[in-house]
Amino acid sequence: MEAVLLGLAAPAAVSTAGSLLERSLDTLSVPFSAILESMTDSESADSETSSITDIADLQSELANLQANLAARIQNALSSAGIKLDEPLQLRVSELDGTVEVVGNHQQKALIEAALADDPAFARDFAKALAMQQLVTASEQAEQATTDDDIALGIAQKEEQFGIFSLSEDGPTLLFGA
Question: How would you list the strands of the sheet with 99-101, edge to edge?
């Protein structure tokens, strides 16, 4: 009887693992494809003018999203009773798309659990990282002198992360590579 149950459970486990892998790959591929698309869209003079406006809008939307995420991090940590003495470096996990703490923070597990309580947080954090990549790529494209310079900038993609800190002025979330 147990062998029959295991035989029925194995396809479901494989299906679940496959869908998790597919979602993780989708999450990782979106920012790079968005960068490539933005680069090809800026070839004509008309799209250059609109891309400047689009980049300004993107920067404004990114600033709003950063402030929103910083407040959400502060609320999650405060609700969990977590106090920070130093800035916190966060990134999106390549394995499951959750937000994780970089390094050996003593409250790492508690912080990650507190952030996981907001189901939309990881999605919004990944969106902000992708937006930051687009802004950075467009700034590099403006400074680049050849298509090879643009391609080199895309090829040198570094790991994206956010640094959360608390100060007298309130919570802050900055993105970097």
Answer: 99-101, 88-92, 161-167, 170-176
